[in-house]
Amino acid sequence: MKLFYAATSPYVRKVMILLEETGQLDAVELINTATTPLAADAALLAKNPLAKVPALERPDGPTLYDSRVITAYLDARGGDKLYPQGSRRWDTLTLEATADGILDAAILMVYETRIRPEDKRMPEWVDGQWDKVSRAVAALNTRWMSHLNGPLDMGQISVACALAYLDFRHDTRDWRKGNDGLATWFAAFESRPFMKSTVPPAA
């Protein structure tokens, strides 16, 4: 298999952590890929019409894309370790969707300041994206701590990757303020070996 990836992508980080935790890292060739909404990588575009990372090229079917599709596929391939069965499964999937929603908004904020011309930027739109992040983080802190403190699953990994990305790109916004329980959980979770081994390079 081949994984089109970028080391700074939090969506890619989720996949890399799952590969480590399920012992599949050696089964995947990493294809370093530079792509933006304004400059798609040609090799990636040939595999993923959305030209986004991560994308997983398989020998036995079409290339998979969207991190949640890839992690579900790889987890099934690795023995169903990180997506629990029963009622907890739906909580895990909801947590993963919440984390990805945080990332979607946080990345749009980055694009607004890095890609859009300065005279066309809308600070109000950026603040609106942060409002989504802030509400989601507050919901994690008030509704989801029991799950986050439970057995390791993809929901927890996704939340940790999202919070780490907020520190990486939006540290001055201070997501921890008013979210003490979540901040305490994250401080412990980010000390895990797979979090340390996947820290993105400064860029």
Keywords:
Glutathione-S-Trfase_C_sf; 203 residues; globular; 9 helices; 2 domains; transferase; Glutaredoxin; four-stranded mixed beta sheet; alpha+beta; Glutathione S-transferase Yfyf (Class Pi), Chain A, domain 2
Descriptive account of the structure:
With 203 residues, this protein is of the alpha+beta class. It folds into 2 domains: 2-77, Glutaredoxin, CATH 3.40.30; 87-196, Glutathione S-transferase Yfyf (Class Pi), Chain A, domain 2 (Up-down Bundle). The protein has helices spanning 10-21, 42-47, 67-77, 87-114, 123-143, 145-148, 154-170, 180-189, 193-196, and strands at 2-5, 29-32, 55-58, 61-65. The protein has a 4-stranded mixed β-sheet, with helices on one face. Strand 3 and strand 4 form a beta hairpin. The chain is globular, with a radius of gyration of 17 Å. It starts with a strand and ends in a 7-residue tail after the last helix.
